[in-house]
């Protein structure tokens, strides 16, 4: 059984079509303790930002579980999640591939997968016969690791 985005029903939480809208301001991003410049992907990180076109290739060619983070640079919880994902990437090493998809740069995938809340994480197991797991919202690193343990 192969996973392909032309049949995304395995990753959908509902059948509704909702667009992700950018807020006028974000108090979290305006905090002096956060820097937007390197807040989404740390320099030298194993985490890779990809496009929706590259996503199908990543899924099809996976040799490890894949964690997909659908994010926006203006989303405060997305910025905070990036820090948690960095912890998971350092802990998991080569046992996990983490990729990020910017919803503003890839609106087609939001529609296809019904991404309505940010951040949205989709956990895809290494074994194509197992079901993917999807969650919306900020998760701490230990919860992400807990979900990975169930894949």
TrEMBL record:
BP-aspect Gene Ontology terms: cell redox homeostasis
Pfam families: Thioredoxin
Keywords, ordered alphabetically: Chloroplast, Disulfide bond, Electron transport, Oxidoreductase, Plastid, Redox-active center, Transit peptide, Transport
Keyword Oxidoreductase (UniProt): yes
Location of this chain's protein in the cell: Plastid, Chloroplast
Signal peptide feature range: none
Protein name: Thioredoxin domain-containing protein
PANTHER family: THIOREDOXIN-LIKE PROTEIN CITRX, CHLOROPLASTIC
CDD domains found in the cross-reference section: TRX_family
């Amino acid at each position: 059984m192969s996973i392909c985005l032309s049949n995304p029903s395995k990753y959908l939480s509902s059948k509704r079509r909702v667009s992700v809208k950018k807020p006028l301001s974000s108090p979290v991003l305006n905090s002096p303790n956060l820097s937007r410049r390197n807040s989404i992907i740390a320099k030298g990180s194993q985490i890779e930002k990809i496009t929706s076109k590259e996503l199908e290739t990543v899924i099809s060619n996976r040799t490890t579980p894949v964690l997909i983070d659908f994010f926006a640079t203006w989303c405060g919880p997305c910025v905070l999640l990036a820090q948690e994902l960095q912890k998971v990437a350092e802990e998991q090493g080569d046992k996990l591939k983490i990729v990020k998809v910017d919803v503003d740069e890839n609106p087609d995938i939001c529609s296809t997968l019904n991404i309505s809340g940010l951040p949205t994480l989709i956990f895809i197991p290494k074994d194509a016969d197992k079901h993917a797991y999807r969650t919306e919202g900020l998760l701490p690193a230990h919860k992400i690791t807990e979900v990975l343990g169930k894949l």
